[in-house]
Fold Patatin.
Amino acid sequence: MSSTMERTKSIPLQPPTYGNLITILSIDGGGIRGLIPGTILAFLESELQKLDGEDARLADYFDVIAGTSTGGLVTAMLTNPDENNNNRPLFAAKDIKEFYLSQGPKIFPQESSYRLLAPITRIISPVMGPKYDGKFLHELVKEKMGSRRLHQTLTNVVIPTFDIKNLQPTIFSSYEVKRKPEIDAMLSDICISTSAAPTYLPAHYFETKDQEGNVREFNLIDGGVAANNPTLVAMGEVTKEIMGGSTDFFPIEPMDYRRYLVISLGTGSKKEEGKYSAKAAARWGVLGWLTSGGGTPLVDIFMQASSDMVDYHLMSVFQALHLEDNYLRIQDDTLSGDLASVDVATEKNLDDMVKVGEALLKKPVSRVNLETGRLNAEKPETNEEALRRFARSLSQERQLRLMRSPHGHTVLPKKILNPRLTSGGPSTGLIL
């Protein structure tokens, strides 16, 4: 198997028209809590490497990788080509964890004076300006992303932001950039924009210029205010491609959920503990909504609501179609204290977040209860086992596309293919 990846690693993932599935990976926003999905991603990539060799990378398997805020940064890291090896990503999934551990404390400096004066600072800071100036983050992102632009990613990406001048979302999509060259922004600008969480980091302004010299202005903040869970946005971008007659997806129908294989990773939440109450909120003014209970209620609520609504919708659709095994949502709603923060980057808290991610792998696969909104364990299968199952399907799908595509130039051993893979018909569920 490893020799197969070695021979084909220079060949990008072939279009879904040669396979059975449309593969989507989505990563929520959540600031420093990006460590949690980072730990999950490292495990998934390691499972793919066991199947296909050490050169396997997540970008080799997903038609779309979507990310908002910290998830957008992870998305860019996983898909930004290495300048020394254009067909491989700059970062392996295992590098994400180290990135957050080493750079997180510099992005969100925990100065002793702030910790001592935290109550006063939290009241004054939202009035005086963002909590962090973002200078280190901006320099770091520009260094890591280099001069690469949206159209150069190794697989399709979808990264939401929000334009505060036009009061509407701006979606940086590999699909849209083919029709709208004005959104072919530098990856560094996209990452800085989608990470600009209100009250935490400054809004980001930049311009792009097309070949005719037309300038477009962008006035952007964190995409989490509109789509903190970008899974549905990614699926929407695919649907537009199908409806537009893209040959990459023929003969797939726009709403054929049987053909979707979706992994959606959350960054954790404090839902189980109960963060705010109506009695307390009834007394809040502007400052109360900006800083109460050790958090930023207005931002917390917007982002949690946008994440949950997507999960509610997708879970209800996949359940109604009896396709639960095609959709894997990995989330932990039991965080508390500093673990639930988006910016407490102390050594202890970062280590604890890694442990949360590792423990989450061992927990049973959970489904959102459509009545209570809470996560309920409904299967004996753990998240770790589910990811192994998805890894097998991803590996088989890549091999199938290579075999059917004129660009594959490889013959795969029959024993690694499920008979349904060679039938040419649509998948009726997750391939095992």
